[in-house]
Amino acid sequence: MSNTNFKTSLISTTATGLLVAMGLSLPLTFVSAGSAYAEDCLLDTNNDGNADSNVDTDGGADSSGGDNLLACGVGAIASGSFSTALGAGSLANDTDGTAVGFGAQATGGNGATAIGADSRATGGNTTAIGDDARAIAAAATAVGENARADFIDSTAIGQSADVGGVRATSVGADANADGVASVAFGANAQATGLESIAIGSGNTAALAANASAAGAIAIGHDSLSSGTDSVALGRNANGVGNSAVALGSLASAGANGAIALGLSSDAAGTQSIAIGQTSVANQLDAMAVGVSANATAEGTTALGGFAQATADGATAVGHDAAAGGDRAVALGYVTVAAGNDSIAAGAFANAGGNDSIAAGAFANAGGSSAIAIGFESFASGPGSVAVGRQASVEGAEAVAVGLSASAIGANATALGSNSIADGTYSTAVGSLSFAAEGSAALGFGSIADGTYSTALGSNAATNTSSGIAIGGGRFDEGAYSAGQGAIAIGGATYDMIGDQQTSAAQSEGDNAIALGTGTRADRVDAIAIGVKAEATGINAISIGDSARASASHTFSMGAFSRASSSNAVALGFASTATARNGVAIGGRTQASRDGALALGGGTNFNEGAQASAVGAVALGGATYTEVGGILVTDGAEATAVNAVAIGTGAEATGVNGIAIGGEAIASSTDATAIGQMADATNFSATALGADALASGAASSALGDDSEATNTNATAVGQDASASGIAATALGAGSVADKNDATAIGEGADATGFSSTALGADAQASGNTSVALGDSANASYNGSTAIGAGSMTTMANQMMFGTGITVYTLPGLGLGGSARGTANQTGNVQYVTTDDDGNLGTTGSVPSTKTSNPGTTKTVSSTPVATSRAPIVDGGAEFEAGLTELSDPSAPTTASGTSFDGAGGTQITGVSNETIGTNIGTAPTNTPRPVQRNSIAAQQSLAAFNANSISVNAQSIDVNTKAIQSNKVLIGQAFNKIDANTAAIEKSFQSLQDVESGLAAVAALPDMYLSPNAKWSAAGGAAVFGDEFGFGATLAVRGNDNWSFGGSAAMGGDQATGKVQVRYEGF
Fold first, then answer.
1. Residues 6+ apart with CB under 8 A from 491
2. Is there a domain that residue 840 lies in?
3. Where does the signal sequence lie (predicted)?
4. Whole-model pTM?
5. Has residue 362 been placed in a domain?
């Protein structure tokens, strides 16, 4: 094949095929295969379709004479190796260059291709196809009219497509990829940012306002991606912010990092997300997902159709969910979280208060910090909590937990299905529980219907202010308190098959207290403590198993104790006080009449103390053998009005009788027996001392084994005995066994009627006799023995002392005679005495023989005046036969001392004292000597003797008065004895009171509460000496930090108590 043919083939096949492939046409003349052509195309100048020599020319085309070059067209130049220039004015001046079209140019580098009128391919491997297309950088490609690929590796395809960056690509009419490595695909697509992508008719991916829009992607009609790394995908989508993504028609991601997905979605906030048709997330970090979801504040989230999150940090999840408060969360269909930091979860849930939570369908938390959890739960108060289906709270900080639980009032708490806390500070815990204002109800069906009341336990109930009911039971069988401030603690009990054994505690009076199963306190201020205890009177108190206090102001303590009349007290097992003001203390004691007191227990019925008459007092329990427990003595018994029996076995059976001591007996009116086995058996009798016996009316026996066995008899001293009417025996072993007899002194005996014996072992056995002095003995009627050892020897005798007795009469001494003499009347008598000391009187001067020298005794301190002048009869002095009464020269002697004769021997052993009044003695008289044979002397002596007799009579009268005085003193002594007896009784009572108080204090139980206990009750009993004490304690825990309690105890008639409050910090 020749060159001509080859070229012809090239034109007719290769060139034409290329032109056809490019959609272009050139006015070339096809010639036959046989025509010869040069390397430059021959033009059909004359348009005849034939190659005419000398007519058709190459039009100035220049291929530089190379066989591998082709220049075709007027002024076409193909100057590069293997280059081709087709078209008028075309230019291909580099190796492998191709320029096709009018004025096309393939220059500036090997392999350039320019196809199209005025197209330019400038640079190695560039391609420009299309009218006025420009590919002017290495490896650039521009395809389409006015297409521009001005940067290395750039591509522009489409009419007026343009690239403005290295490796940029624009495809489509007026597409523009100005950014490095950017892509614009579609009519008018604009990708002007670094590595940006614009896909779609009319889309724009342009440079962002504040930075290069590197990496932007815009896909879709009129989409806009103006931020760095932004994406706009969809018709009119807008990716305005850096790294923003807008996917969907009219989607808008208008801030850095924003994402808008869906028709008309709007993500206008930095890093916001709007997903869903017409969704809006227009604030920083906002997210809206769902049709018309709105997240219109910073950090908000709206997920779900029409979800609204309109405050900072709010979250709304669910169709029509709305979170309108800062940081609020709404989760669920048509939920609303309107308060700041509120949470609403569940269909139609509403959290309207700040910090509130509503969880559950139709849940509503309308108060600040309120919580409503559960279907149709409702919490409207600040800080309130409602948890459970249809639980409701209407008060501030109130809590309701459970199905249909309700808390109405500030700080109310209701826990349990259908529980109701209806008032401020009320608490109801347990299904169907109810609590009024300030009250607490804990347990199934518990009811605290009064203000500040408490009900604890299944079906426990209280219906008045400050009442307390603690203890469970079946329906209508729980603990029950009905009075204001009443307390009932103790539940019902049931046997194995469910039959009720004991009812629950019941307290139905104001301030009444019932503690224990089966207890009942149904009057004002009544208290019942113990199983089946009952207090049914006003202010009544019963403590113990089955104890009963059934009248006003009564007190019973001890199992089966009974106090059944007003003010009665029964303490001890089976003790009974059945009359007004009666007191029974001790096991099986009985006080059965008004004001009676019985204290002291017994094992069996009627063995304890018994007080069975009005005002009676019986103190002392029964005694038993250590082995076998056989009864030894019964308890004290007081069976008459105002009788008092104190001591085991003591009996006071007479009106006003008093028996104090073991087995003491006072069996008659006003009788008093004090001492072990003392016995007073007659009216007003008094027996004081062990085994003392007073069996006569108004008799008194004081001393161990003393006996007063007749009317008005008095025996004082151990073994003293007074058995006569009005007899008096005073002194150990003394005896007065006749009427009006008086014996005073140890071993004294007055055994004659109206006799008197005064002194140890004195004996007055004659009627109306008197024995005064140690061992004095008046054994004859009317006789008197005065002085130790004196003894009468005949009736009506007065015996003064013994044979060794000295008699001193100070009234007859110096200075006394004048007074005594002045009182004398009638004849003056002389006192005489015989050898036995018997006194007598005479009207004449006795002879000298009638006076035995040495036997005259000084009886008066009155001096006997005699004349010292001798009486001369016939001038003779008569001194013989006259005896001087004393020696004038003898010294004065002490009282009670006598001398035998003138200057004789001293007589000793004469006492100068007598009971009551002392008879004083005086110094020895110093008479003058009488002259013998003197008539005057005789007359003087007679006068002296008469005066002495008068003085002696006066002394006797003094002694008689002294005896009467001693009787008065004895009477006073009895009065003092009575006073001492009363003082002893008072001291005994005081000691009893002390022992009673100590027993009461010892019986106070402690107020201990174990760590998990809410309350505790305790009872106690104690013994101190012969006294019994009983006490009870109630302690209640308020909370983990504080508790309080009170205790009371009684011992005898003494009561004590205390109140304790404890606070513990942890």
1. 457, 458, 460, 470, 471, 472, 473, 478, 479, 504, 505, 517
2. yes
3. 1-38
4. 0.50
5. no
